[in-house]
Amino acid sequence: MLGSLFVEEDEVDIKNLGFPSRKLDVKSPPLPRSQCRLSGISNQGATCYLNSLLQTLLLTPEFRENLFLLSEHELGRLADKDKEDAKVRVIPLELQRLFVQLLLGDRQSVLTTDLTNSFGWTNNEELQQHDVQELNRILFSAIEESLVGTSGSDLIQTLYHGKIVNQIICDVCGKVSEREEDFLDLCVTVAGSESLESGLADSYCQMEVMNGQNQYRCGQCNKLVDARKGAKLRCLPEILTISLLRFSFDYIKLERYKETGKYMFPMRLNMAKYCEKDSTEEQWYDLFSIVIHRGGAHGGHYYAYIRDVDAIGQWTHPDEETLEVPADPSTGEVDFIQCDSPIELIQAVLANKPNQTLSLDKLGGEINSQTGVSWSKRFKRQYGPLNKFLAKYDDKFVLDTSSKQVSLRRYNTPRDGSGEPTSLDKSTPQSHKDYNSKKRSASPPPPLGSCWFSFDDVRVHPIREQEIQKTFSGKSSAYMLFYRKSTFERPSEAMGNPSYQIPDSLIAEVLEQNELLRIEREEYDMKMNELNLQIHFRQWYQYNNGALHPIDYQSSFLQLVIDRRKNIEDLKIAIMELGGELIDSEFVIHRMKEIPSGFHLYDDISIDNDKQIKDLYVEDGTMLFVWDGVQVGGSEVQTGILYEPVLLNISTGTKQHAVIRGFPKNMSLKSLQRHLCDILNLDCDSTVIKRIVGEEERKIVTFTFDQYEKSLSEVKLKDGDELLIDVESQSSSSENVPMSSHQQPKVFLAIENRCKNTQNGAQLKCRIEAEKSQTIGDIKTLAINKCGLTDNAESYRLRVDDEHIGLRPPMYEQLTIDDYGLNKFLLIILEEGEAPKSNEMTLTIMTSSCDLDLPDFDITIDRNSTVDYCLQCSLNWAGLSDDNWHLRKTNWCGEAAELLDDMESKLETCLVQHGDRLLLEKGRIPPKGFIRPAIWLYPTPPRHHHGNGGGDQGSMVSWITQGLSSLWNGLEQPSSTSPTSEPILIGDVEISLKSTLDDLKIQIMTLNSLSDVTIPTTDFMRVRVFSDGRLGGILRGSNATLQKLKLKSCDKLAIQILPQEESLNINQVVLEVSKRIPNTKTYESATEVLWDTSQGATVQSLKQMIADACFIQQELISLAKHFPTKYEWMVIKEQAKKQAQQQKSKKKATKINLRQAPYSIQDGDTIGVKNLQFDPLKTDDFSTEADEIGRAELNRLAEEKRKQRKERKEQSEGGIEFNRPKRPEVGLTIKVENFRS
C-alpha cells in the first residue's frame, strides 16, 4: 500500500507499471550441491524421521562400506525385480543407489521415492508421521531379512546387536537365575534422571530388592525368599544405539506429554561399569550422531546432528558459511516466502538495508511485508518473541536494547595492503545477489573426522560442537544417540574420499546422471535467460489523439531473441542488425506499453551501455520502441509516466462533436478545457467541463473552480471516463443533473480475435469506437474489418468473455450495445459460428458425465423446439446413433440438476433459456406418462401367525418357497451364506402412470427372472419403496393408480413373495419386532407383525398387539423404536396422560398418536421388546454393540467436521496453523520378500 510513498515524482517505478513479467514455463532442474558438499534428502510429506535415520546410516562408514561390498551377483538386478522367478533384494539395492546419489550426485537433495516404494508403501504411508525409534528396529529387521543367504547376512548382527542378561540372586542360597536377551538399542528413561550416565546406572547398576509381598520363589530353596533383581550388559555392539524415552503419560490429565527437562549426555562414554563384573577393560564409545525431535507428544519434526567421520563434507565456520536462501531463478532475488529459517530470513532482510540496520518495529514490518505473514503467526510459537529470538542469537545479530536497533554482527576481518577494510567491514548496502554470493574469511576448522553437520531434510549446514548442548532440553531435544567404538580407525585413503569402496558400476551410473544434470542446467539457464522482445520502429507508427498508434497492425514490430545477461551495447547492435535501414544514425530505445488510448513510451533504457538487460527489468514480451527521441511522424512525443495519457470520452451533446482521445494525466483541467475548445472550435469563456457518472442512472456533475487548477490524475479522472462540454456558462452549477438522451456519448469496445482460421498477419486484438445505439451486427462487421478477416460475415459471431463467469452465450445481432449493457473494458470475443437469430437460442451441451471423448459443444435451435428435438440435435452433433440418452439441466455452478423427462415439452416451458448448459447423460427416458422403476426381490419375511394354518396353506407355502429357493440358487450371489440373505435385482418394467398397482404386479410377474416362480395371484406379492438400502412404505390399494401413489422413474421398488394373500388398508402397519435376549445386548431374529390402528395408534394398542404376538404379559413389556441412521432407540411411553393431568384446564386429555411425531411409526420400522420379568435393569437401554459402534463413528465424523471448520476458519483469517490436529497412530510396516527358502 505504501510501496511508492517515497518515490520522487520524476522517478519511474518500473516494477509497478504492469509490464510483462517472466513466466516460468520450463521445469527447473535440481539444484547442485551446497557449499558443504553434503546432500540432503527431500521430505515426501512426513518422512523427516526416515531422512534422519538414513543420513546417520550413510555417515556410519562400517555400515556403508559393508553394504557396498554386496554385488549384484548376490543381490540381483533391479531390472529383474518384476520377473516371476527372479529373487531381487530390492531394499539393499535401493539403499546402495540412494547412498551413491548422496555421496557423489551433484544434487542439493535426493528423493527417497524408490526406496519407500521398495518398502511396499502404497497407501500414502509417506504422509503419516512415525517414531524414528520404531523405524530403526523395523528397518534393521527388513535389512536382515533381505540379506539372508548373502555374505552380508550378519551385517546388522555384527554392528548393532548386543546382549543383556537379566539376573535374580537368591539372598538365602545365592543361586543366580539368568535370562539372556538380544537388543538392537538401549532404551533409557529420561524422567527422573539428569544425565545419560545416571539413567544407565539406574538400569544396569542398581539391583531391585524383592521382599515382603514381592518375594521371589527360589527353585533351589523351594520357597518364597528375599532376592535381588537386576540387569547387566553382557555383550556390547560396535555401534551403540541409545533411545531416550522422552514421552510419558499423565494419569491425571489422561494424555501423553514430552519430557523437555535437561538431560545431558557425554561426547565420550565408558560403558564398562554397566557391563558384567568380569568385563575389566574399559569400553569407550564416541558420539557421532544425534537424532533430534522438535515438537510435542502428538507430532513434530525430526532432524539430525552427525559427525563427519570420514571428512567427506567441507566444514566452514557457521558464521562464515555462504547464506543459501531461496531465490527466484528468473531474477536472482531472494524468495522471502520460501525462506523457512528465521535466521536466514532476518539476515537477508538486514543485508539489503543501509548499514545493515533496522529498528525492531521496522524489522517486524519488513518481515510481514516481504513474506505476507507476521513474525507472531509464522515463527513465534516455535521460536518465541522477536526480541528474545534476536537476543538468543547474539552471535549473529546485535540488538541495542536502548535504541531498539537491530543490525548484523560484523566480524573482524583482515585488511588489505592499503589498510582499507575488506568489503564486509564496510557499512554499505548490498543487493540480494551480492548478499547470496559474498563469503566471509575462513577460520580453522575442527580436526578431520571431528566436524559436525546439521541434516534437516534438504538443508545441510555445518554446526559447532557447542550446538549439541542445546539438545539437552527444550522442545528441540535429543531423541536417539549413536555411539561408535573409540577403537575404530579409518584408513587414510578413506579420508575425504566419498567414492571409497563404491563399486565402479555405481560410480559410472551416477557420473552419467551428473553429466545429464549439467546439460539440463545449461539448457535451463539458457532458457531462463532468453528474452523474446518486440522491437517497434518509429517509421511504423503515427502520433494522434495523445498516443502512438501503429499504421498497420499486421506489421507493427519485429521479434528479437537475446540473452538477458547481455548489456545494452549488445542490445543496440542486435537491434541495428534486425532493423537495418529503419535505424537512425543516432537512436534511443524506450520501453513501450499498450494502454487504452494506444501506446505510450516510458523510460529510456539505452543511456548506460554497460548495464545488463536484466538489471533494467526487461522481461519476456517487453515492447521496445526505437526512435530519435524527439518526434514520431512529425509530432513531438512526450515520454514518462507523468505524461501517460488518460483516455477520455468527450461529448458536447451532439453526435457530430464526440471526441475519444488521450490526454496527459499531468495536464491541468483548465489546459484540457482550452485544448478541447481549440479542437471543437468553441469559445473557452462560455464552456464548462462536466463529468458524467453512473452506469444505469447517469448524472452530470460539474467540476469546481478549484479543480480547474488541478491535474487530471488529481481530480481522479481515469481511462474511459466521460466528460461533457457545456457551452452554456450559466449552467455551471455543481448540482447533480440527470443526463438527457441526446447527450449520450460514444463507447469503445475491446475485441479479441479467437477464430481458428486466422491467417498469419491477421490482428488478434483491436479497439472499436461505437455509439450505444449501434447493433451487435454493426460491431461484428467493424471487428471483422479491423482484424483483417476475409470470410463471409455470417460465419462469425460475438460473445462476451466475463472475467468472473467466463464465456457468455453468443449475442443476438439485432440488439444494440445499450440493450446488452456493454460497458467500458468488457472483453468481446470474435469467434467462428453463426449468431443466433431472434427466434433461436444457443445451448452448451456438456459431456463430462458420460464416457465420451468429446469436448463440450454448442447447438443453436429454435426456441419452440421440444426436449426430444434438442436431444436428437445433440446426438447428431456427437455422432451417436442409439437412443439410450437423455438431457438434464444444470445449476449455476455446472452441477447436475432437474431431469428433462418430458420429451414433448418445449424448451421454454421447461425454463431452458438462451446460454444454458445441459448435461448429456446415458440412459433412455420412458415416454411421457410412463415410468421405468428398477425391481428388487427381497426375501420372504418371517411372520407371526395367530392360530394354525390349514393344510392347503401349508402346501402353498412349500410350493412358493421351493420356487424362490430355485431362483436364488440359480442366480450368482457373491459370498452369500444363505440363498435368501440378500436382495436381488431382477430387472425393470416400463409402465404407464395410469396403470393400477395390480397392473404393476402382473407386469413384474412376467419378468424373466420370475418365470420359474409360480405366484397364484397378485395378493401374494407385496410391493414396497426401496431407498438407502432399507425397505420403506408398502404400496396399498390394488386399484390405485401409480400416479396417485406418486411413483417416479428414479424410484426403486422391492417385492416380497408372501406365503399367504395380503390386502392391507391404510390403518394396518407392518412392523419388525425383535425380542431382546435378557442381560445381553443382542436380539432374537426379527418377526413381522401386523398392527391394526383402526381403533387408534396408541401406546396401549401397540403394547397389546406385541404382547399377544410375543406371549408376554402387557405390564411386563417395554418397547422402543429403532432409528437406524442415528443408531438410537426411542422408548415408547405413555406420556400424554401425565401431561394432561398436570394441566389445569378441564379439557379431555388427548392420547398420543404413535404414527405422528416424535415416533412417526410406519411400515418397516423395527420395534425392540424387553421382558421386564427377566431383564428388570436398565429398562430404557435398548442399544446393541452395533449401535455403540455406529454412534462412535458418527461422533468421530462430527469431530472431524468440527476440526475442519476450525481449520477453515483459521485459514480464512489469514493465519498459519501451527497447532496441528492429533493424527491417529498407524503401525509402521516394511514389506520384505521371503529369501529363506
Keyword list:
1237 residues, alpha+beta, eight-stranded mixed beta sheet, coiled coil, cysteine-type deubiquitinase activity, Papain-like_cys_pep_sf
Q: What best-fitting shape do the alpha-carbon axes yield?
A: flat
Helix content: 10-25%
Q: How many strands?
A: 58
User: How much is the radius of gyration in Å?
Assistant: 43 Å
Helices, by number, come to 24
Strand content: 25-35%
Oligomer: single chain
Helix/strand-derived class?
alpha+beta
The N- and C-terminal alpha carbons lie at a distance of 72 Å
Unreliable stretches, pLDDT < 50, 5 or more residues?
1-16, 328-332, 412-442, 729-735, 946-955, 971-980, 1136-1141, 1143-1147, 1212-1223
Write down the overall mean pLDDT. 80
Largest sheet: 8 strands, mixed
Characterise this structure.
It holds the Pfam family UCH. One of its GO terms (biological process) is protein deubiquitination. Residues 507-534 form a coiled coil. The chain has 1237 residues and is α+β, with helices and mostly antiparallel strands. It contains 24 helices and 58 strands. Strands 5, 10, 13, 14, 15, 19, 20 and 21 form an eight-stranded mixed β-sheet that branches. A hairpin with a 5-residue loop joins strand 3 and strand 4 (176-183). Helix 4 packs across helix 14 (504-528). The longest helix is centred in the last third of the chain and has 28 residues, at 1185-1212. The chain is flat and about 130 Å long. The protein starts with 39 loop residues before the first strand and ends in a 25-residue tail after the last helix. The N terminus is likely disordered.
